[in-house]
Write a structure and sequence with these properties.
elongated, 2 strands, mainly alpha, 4 helices, two-stranded antiparallel ribbon
Length: 96
Amino acid sequence: MFTPGRVIDDVELRDRTALDAPRAGPATGGLLHAVRGRATRTIETRMLQDALERHHGNVTAMAREMGITRRAIHQKLKRYALPAAPYRCDGRATRR
């Protein structure tokens, strides 16, 4: 996962989300997984929205800043239903 300036790995994300979740036991394994998934979605969505605003919808600039490929950015935007076009200043629509 990415944050401005650094990468959050799965272990750190697990540690952060585990603090808010009930203590894991046999019956809470699915709950912990759900909490982690929700936290990941929330964090990634917010970071993508912030980057879209900061870079005016420029996916190349977003990818460069986050240290991931343009393709990965496009996949994440699609996964979270975040179109880049509304953030663009020049009014360009996304290519189809």
